[in-house]
Amino acid sequence: MEHIKVNLPSNEEKYKSGNGEGCWALADEKVKAAYDNDEKEGNYTVILDNDSFYYPGLMAGTKIPIEMRGINRPVVPYKWLVENYGESIW
Description:
globular; single chain; about 25% helix; 5-stranded antiparallel beta sheet; about 35% strand; alpha+beta
């Protein structure tokens, strides 16, 4: 497993722009290759490697979905975050 940085958006606007809480995640070889190659699209699953400050209860070790965003960091879908952890505290 390799480390990558992902963003957890605090609202829909931040999701669309790709901004949010930067977190570490563990990725397998396939995901790391997509990340390193700045893949513009694609949905993957990674393992969060630190607790979220924005979403209490979202802890290290949780499998999270990400969307690749090219040269920008991958983003966790906002809808998934709200459905599973409620609104961000930020």
